[in-house]
Write a structure and sequence with these properties.
Largest sheet: 5 strands, antiparallel
Structural class: alpha+beta
Oligomer: single chain
Helix content: 10-25%
Radius of gyration: 15 Å
Strand order of the largest sheet: 1-2-3-6-7
Length: about 160
């Protein structure tokens, strides 16, 4: 496993659409392991492959209940709406209020290429939506209201 550099706002790759994963091999497994290490080191709860410079439809989410891996994820149902504050590892120090579904159902593949469906709600659903947005070149600031920037140093 290796820590990978998290791409920051202004890097063109964050605005590109990621490609579908068709090969489920050791390289994919290594990418997922590296993403997990990178996310943990950055104290994040989610990470998308484009954030580490790889244009593949791979996201990981861990809200404290264990790592969830979604390959080629697709939201198939959404219900309710909650507006809450979000941030992003690719846009450090910036936060904003974003409307997301309260509950959702997502279908995806696991690291072996097996199909699964999963239902999520609350923070877990929010994190999945946030990361899927990354796969489509969308950042939370595109959807946010009331953008807040942390003050740095003696400001």
């Amino acid at each position: 496993m290796a820590y990978r550099e998290i791409r920051k706002l202004g890097d063109d790759i964050l605005r590109k659409k990621a490609r579908e994963v068709t090969i489920f091999d050791n390289r994919l497994k290594m990418l997922i392991e590296d993403m997990a290490e990178t996310m943990k080191k950055a104290s994040g709860i989610g990470l998308a492959a484009p954030q580490v410079g790889i244009l593949k439809r791979v996201i990981i989410v861990d809200i404290g209940e264990g790592l969830n891996v979604f390959i080629n994820p697709e939201i198939i149902e959404m219900d309710g709406e909650i507006i809450d504050v979000e941030g992003c590892l690719s846009i450090p120090g910036v936060y904003g209020e974003v409307a997301r579904p309260q509950r959702l159902k997502v279908k995806a593949k696991d690291e072996k290429g097996l199909d699964f469906e999963l239902e999520a709600e609350g923070l877990f659903a929010r994190a999945i939506c946030h990361e899927i947005d990354h796969l489509n070149g969308v950042l939370f600031i595109d959807k946010a209201n009331n953008i807040i920037e942390e003050k740095k140093g003696d400001e």
